[in-house]
Amino acid sequence: MLRFLASRVATMLITALCLTFIVFFLTNLGPNLEKIAKSELGSRITDEEVASWLDRNGYSDPLFQRYGQWLGVLPGWTHTNDEGRRFGRCMPLEGLAPYDPTVSEPDPATFCGVMQGDWGWSTVFRKDVGEVVWRGLALTGKLMFWVTLVMVPGALIIGVLAGMKEGSRLDRTLSTFSIVTTATPEYVSGVVFITVFASSAVGLRWFNGSATSAMDDATFLNFTLPVLTIALYGMGYIARMTRASMTEVMTAQYIRTARLKGVSFRNIVMKHALRNALIAPFTVIMLQFPWLLNGVVIVETLFNYKGFGWTLVEAAGNNDIELLLGVSVVSVLVVLVTQLISDIGYVYLNPRIRIS
Questions:
Q1: Taking the CA atoms of the chain, what radius of gyration do you get in angstroms?
Q2: Residue 115 gets which letter from DSSP?
Q3: What's the confidence (pLDDT) of residue 355?
Q4: Taking residues 250-276, what's their average pLDDT?
Q5: Looking at residues 13-21, what average pLDDT do you find?
Q6: I want to staple 291 with a disulfide (CB 3.0 to 4.6 A). Which of 19, 256, 279, 295 is the partner?
Q7: Interval 187-219: pLDDT, tens
């Protein structure tokens, strides 16, 4: 088991380095850097002024060197201004005390990257990237928790009930419900929910159409609609996967043997079929977490809930490189960690994998 975990962790680290480098390369292309310079100095600056600003802020260094600086395995870039003051990535000029030629200043050439907890500075929010990312992650985490609490149990119940008796009226009804929820995008169901349950057009003012207040205090009134919108969309896919797995298990030879021995149908389902039927849905459930983290952009925008997905849109739309890199790192880590948990869960659910 330790060898299994070690190999998976090593694969995770290599994958994380490759993916973060790809994102770093794409976000640091020439046109993107030029946009950053013009957003800081003004859109009418000349090409020489752009090149000068990029050189002063470390963007002219080789790509691999800057990637190492961003990771924190290489010393941050340094520059000397006209006054002779040295500043750099680890010591921005704005953070220095008033210049005093009689006082020796510290050396800014130190390590300050992701590995040291320094995620950079957001040009959009004018805050530390780590602060912006963790705030959005906490808000989306709260939304994910309630969505998971509604989606997973509901999907498993629907899938198990539908798969116990294939072809029955209950199976057809629940399967139709699963198909409809999966085929309905969030922006459609969200608009329908707002129109029916939160607007004066129909008259049912049961819930709030905005979830902004839920960022500070989530209640049944302001958090039900966004949670329900996301949960219904993901519920159908998990339910259909559970139903297909349950149907396959119920036709297995050991289930027929248990029936011939006189074991009650309830015990057959709970003690024999359910555990084997949950192997495939378990992987699907774990795959929902990366989707919930980055795929709720539409719902967060629709209900004005400024979580992680909304932060990603703001970073991409405003060419905020440091923030976009921070969001990408968290997204990659969530995907890799959920895959690791899925692999470990597979080992415990399926004894054949554990034995091999």
A1: 26
A2: G
A3: 52
A4: 78
A5: 88
A6: 295
A7: 888 888 888 887 766 667 788 778 888 888 888
Phi then psi for residue 236, to 5 deg, are: -60, -40
What is the C-alpha separation between 240 and 154, in angstroms, rounded?
12
d(CA 261, CA 270): 16
Record the tokens describing residue 48, joined without a space.
Answer: 């020489």
Count the alpha carbons within 13 Å of 176 in the hemisphere toward its beta carbon. 7
Distance CA 104, CA 89 (A): 19
pTM (two decimals)? 0.78
Span between the terminal Cα atoms of the chain, in Å: 11
Domains belonging to the chain, first-starting first, are 2-116 (no CATH), 129-355 (1.10.3720.10)
Task: Provide the 3-class DSSP secondary structure of residue 143.
Answer: helix
Q: Which residue in the block uniquely carries the two structure tokens 């409809």? A: 180
Q: How far apart are CA 329 and CA 119, in angstroms?
A: 10
CA distance 314 to 328: 13
User: E strands of the chain, at which residues?
Assistant: 78-80, 86-88
Task: Tell me the residue type at 193.
Answer: F
Question: What is the phi-psi region of residue 203: left when phi exceeds 0, alpha when psi lies from -120 to 50, beta otherwise?
Answer: left
183/241 Cα distance (integer angstroms): 15
Is the pLDDT confidence value at 104 over 70?
no
Return d(Cα 340, Cα 352) in angstroms, integer: 18
Q: How far is CA 187 from the centre of its chain?
A: 19
Structure tokens at 193: 């929910």
Q: How far is CA 177 from the centre of its chain?
A: 27
Whether 111 and 72 have beta carbons less than 8 Å apart is answered as yes
- Residues 303-338: tens digit of each pLDDT: 888 888 888 888 888 888 888 888 888 888 888 888
CA 241 to the chain's CA centroid: 22
Half-sphere exposure of 200 (CA within 13 A, CB side): 0
Please check whether residue 116 is in contact with residue 29, taking contact to mean a CB–CB distance below 8 angstroms: no
